[in-house]
Specification:
The protein is of the alpha/beta class. Helix content is 35%, strand content 16%. It is built from 9 helices and 7 strands, in the order E-H-H-H-E-H-E-H-E-H-E-E-E-H-H-H. It has a 7-stranded mixed beta sheet.
Amino acid sequence: MEPFIRIIGTTAPLDRANVDTDQIMPKQFLKRIERTGFGEFLFFDWRNDEDNFVLERPEFRDAPILVAGPNFGSGSSREHAPWGLQDWGYRVVIAQSFADIFRSNCAKIGLLTVELPEAEVRELLDAAPAEITVDLEAQTIVMPDGRTIEFPVDPKTRENLLNGWDDIALTLLREDKLAEYERDRERNGPSTLSLG
């Protein structure tokens, strides 16, 4: 995955609480085995049932930062929800809170989740499509009015995102230890020394 350092971009508002993974990526689209191509199904029911769904408006269509209500990504553990968000073009999702599994699934593909207090989330929702800067390295957001606020992030998640390390990259960082284990292990059967 690509390293995430910072992004300067506009915001798209999804002012709804408890948006679950079935609303983000409906179940009928979970048959694919690839991690790409899910963007067209993002919020499918809302996009097709509501006139002028907010994220379809031209001023929000290409925003790389989604701002949402509390408890975003609740429900099932489907990885397809973060895949769809990323495939649509989002690089950051900001909300007051996230479901733990959703947050973890986002981090594994390089999609940054940022938790902010309710007042700051409300400010961003109301100001959309405002341009902001999300800086993972500094753990700050430059708000629409120019002030800088800090946000917390798990140190390991931060390190992985800054370096672009997914689970495969993290495994390959230990290639020498894996080769040492294979070399020293007594066994019959084929060698698995070649990892690359």
